[in-house]
Amino acid sequence: MNRFFIFTFLTLLCTISFAQQALQRGQDIISPEIHDNNTVTFRLKAPKAAKVEITGDFLSSQVELKEGKDGVWEYTTPEPLAPELYSYSFIVNGLKITDPNNVYMIRDVASVTNVFIIGGGRADLYKVNAVPHGTVARRWYNSPTLKKERRITIYTPPGYEN
Question: Which of 14, 37, 63, 73 is a plausible cystine mate for 52, CB 3.0–4.6 Å?
Answer without folding.
Answer: 73
